[in-house]
Amino acid sequence: MSSIGRASVLIGAGTIVSRVSGLVRTIVLVAAIGSISGAGDAFAVANQLPNNIYAIISTGLLTAVVVPQIVKAAAHADGGQAFISKLFTLGTVGLLGATALAMIAAPLLVQVYASRFTPDQLALSTAFAYWCLPQVFFYGLYALLGEILNARRVFGPYTWAPIVNNIVSIAGFGLFILLFGGPQTLVDAWTPGMIAVLAGTATGGIIVQTLVLLFFWRRAGLALRPDFQWRGVGLRHIGRLAGWTFLMVVAGQLAGVVQSNVLSGASGEDPAIFASQNAWLLFMLPYSIIVLSIGTPYFTQLSEHAAAGRDDDVRADISRSIRTLGFFIVAATAALAVAAVPASRIFTNGPEQAAAAAPVLLCFLVCLVPLAVLFVVQRTFYAYNDTRTPFFFTLLQCVLVAGGALGAGVVLERGELAAGVALTQSIASIVQVVVATALLHRRLSGIGTASWMRALVMFTLAALPAAAAGFGVLLLLGGPGGWTSDSALAGAVGAGIIGSVVLAVYVGILALFRTPELAPALALARRLLPKR
Hints:
Layout: H1 2-33, H2 38-73, H3 81-104, H4 106-113, H5 119-132, H6 135-151, H7 156-180, H8 192-214, H9 235-264, H10 273-307, H11 311-338, H12 340-345, H13 351-365, H14 368-383, H15 388-411, H16 417-443, H17 449-476, H18 488-512, H19 518-528
Helix pairs in contact: 1-7, 1-10, 1-19, 2-5, 2-6, 2-9, 2-10, 3-6, 4-5, 5-8, 6-7, 6-8, 7-8, 9-15, 10-11, 10-13, 10-14, 11-14, 11-17, 11-18, 13-16, 14-16, 15-16, 17-18
């Protein structure tokens, strides 16, 4: 437990700094292009394209397949060096090919994701895409290097490197505002120089982020060298594993295409693509800090236990990690729900826009706790080299997401589209978690579901009065339309005050009832605080 704790703290501290700097990055970006605007949505589509391809590379292959394979290769006589060199060479060649194809297909890709854009918006988004799509290579290289480091239990660099990206982006977006003013919301006001500075900054940050990992490579005890002799990598075995995962992620991307096209119809004066991305960023803040920082070291340990056939230890890992994640994630859900308007003001250009964007965040929050459970359940299947089962329960979720988005596009007004799409996605995710948990329970003849479900119910009951206390504080601060909506800084301060009250009441209630998860969770949290 001590090694898990140390790794969680290292990842958690890095993730906190990374996410906070990422918030500042997005604040500056919103100041440059607006949150609810045609130009903002055009950039959002273009800059999301490399992220979507990165999701296929990272989630679809590396997390599901590479980490367990590297853990196994560590038992080889050379500690896995030959395997990793072959894998790295193969990955680099594949990334170069994928980037070239994406660049060639840039106009088509933009059209696929935003068919309801105006012609001028499509042209602007395509121009952004040519600058952004080189990120595919560097995102993939970063993911490959980072997952290799994670598998070798070098967790820190992968978490801390994005901070450098955020610093580069903040400087570049700030330079854009200095040179051209902001927010630049009109589609026809953009010049080639403006496009180059904004999108070039976004890509430059990813390049620097990737290069940073190379400085930490020696810690992994590996000597990489180009190796084009791929016979020994186990491509056939990896291909079988990755095939189902690839199809799973492709299904997710197709659902995302449907969502993006529905949202593109609201672009201009209502929350659409960029506003939804910003709401998702707020949603992902607690998920990244809590779920990824605690869950990533558990996944490495769980993979080792699964590879050794120690099913009892795997069950214990599942139950312990869900209870620990649940303690923090339930409190975060309550705090962010109460502070939805002040938090949304951080990424909008005025109080009215904050009020319009807050329902999108609330609808996403419906599935925050279930997604924390899914993180553990899905990666347990991966640890057993089972990528086929996750494909089917994720395919179900994707079908529900796409159907829900299309239904929202038919029955909802423009101003309600973003919130409706977010809600249907949350409902689909809840269904996915229920099905996935049932399948894993059957596979392992039990995963302690009753134990961790009792803990989640107890955390939720404690969160209700905590949320009520937070809402009371919001009213004392002037309500959703009070001073906490005056500026991005006021929104951040207001959300921080409300969140602190919710957390204090939540912890107090759990302490009163002597909740067993409280002591280890607080010990983990104290490790994140700076020492004297």
